[in-house]
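Milestone M4 deliverable, item 7.
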Amino acid sequence: MSVRYIKCLFVFTLIVSACKAQTYSSIVSDKEVVVFVKGFFVDNRVIARQIDLKIRPWFIDQLKGGKDSHYKGIINIDSCKKYLSNEDIVFLEQQIKSRVDSTWHKGDFEGYKLFDNAAIKEVYRVSRDRKARQKVKYNYYFWLSIPLFNQRKDIAIVFRSYVCGFLCASECLYLYRFYDGKWNKITEWDCYSD
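Output delivered:
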């Protein structure tokens, strides 16, 4: 084997590895993220699986709270303390800081509609037009964060918004636990709706 052939093989391997690298988080695998998100939609019995293409960002305030924050902080929620150790809290913070990509990948969500800015503007336009609303079956979308997992990956926290244009909106933080072969909602907090 020539040195040139080995170099080409090495470069090809690096390129293929980069193409298969984790894209949502540098800590948690894409597969774990996607399996949770799909399970979230099943648990909530969502018919039209419409997601904002942009991933909802996490903020350290959502983890730790603070006197100037409107978030209570995951570490201050009694029901969360029951499920998360101090090591898990450190792991959650590492995940917040390790987000790699800011958009969901269409190939991960076949059968789902990923809404770009134009589709989101259309949701808002339709929400103002009574006749248009009558013609559209589902005029809403979800805006989701990447789930944050505990170290064992049997607890996940997700930040979810539901938007139907100017007519309504809600957001909530949820804690899920994996048991009986699926993700099950345990509690929610910092919720609001319009």
